[in-house]
Write a structure and sequence with these properties.
mainly alpha; about 40% helix; 2 domains; two-stranded antiparallel sheet; 2 strands; Cytochrome Bc1 Complex, Chain D, domain 2; elongated; 7 helices
Length: about 200
């Protein structure tokens, strides 16, 4: 747990339960890393939601509660994600108004950085499919496809193994709706799209 310099550990422990009880649900919060993401990513997510979410959007989409605090999904637009752990330890980031002084261990900083690194490709993939696919397909956990013959992305794995998507994109996906436009992507965009699609798969 990251400990603000002016708080007692007991108060922070109580805060964990209050945050769990009263945090507003969001779609971004529903997208969780799988077991293959590793302990650091899972621990980093917990730390970020407990200690950073009051000001920052810590998921893969949405705006920060504090408009001066950048969303975590946008941090790679500002700096190399590889530098974030050291930045947290040194508290060297440009601080938004009201950002508290805090104590953080090297392990905590590395785990938060691991979570931020995990968020980046999913956020990028979500933006790409929202911009290019959502006019026909449902692209989140809850929306419905605007085109009746366009399958929701969260159900893609019922039709095609996720690991086969890269080849399918390369060959040109044959969809259920014949008016699907041509969608050209580079390898980084494709990998991020697939990462996002994989993250929202459901059997419902």
């Amino acid at each position: 747990m990251i400990k603000p310099a002016t708080r007692m550990t007991q108060a922070l422990t109580a805060g964990i339960f209050l945050a769990a009880a009263f945090a507003a649900p969001s779609e971004a919060a529903e997208i969780k890393p799988g077991p293959d993401a590793g302990e650091a990513v899972h621990h980093g997510e917990a730390l970020a939601r407990l200690n950073c979410a009051r000001c920052h959007e810590v998921g893969i989409s949405g705006e920060s509660p504090n408009t001066g605090a950048p969303p975590f999904w946008s941090l790679s637009d500002r700096r190399s994600v590889a530098t974030i752990a050291r930045m947290l330890i040194d508290q060297a980031s440009p601080k938004h108004s009201g950002m508290p002084t805090f104590e953080i261990t090297e392990k905590q900083a590395e785990d938060i950085a691991a979570w931020i690194a995990w968020v980046q490709p999913l956020a990028h993939g979500r933006r790409l499919v929202t911009e290019n696919c959502s006019s026909c397909h449902a692209v989140t956990l809850t929306d419905e496809s605007a085109h009746p013959e366009a399958p929701p992305f969260r159900l893609i794995s019922k039709r095609l193994p996720i690991e086969a998507l890269e080849e399918a994109f390369a060959e040109g996906i044959e969809s259920g709706h014949p008016d699907m436009p041509v969608f050209d992507v580079d390898i980084i965009q494709l990998q991020d799209i697939i990462s996002y699609i994989a993250s929202i798969q459901t059997t419902d």
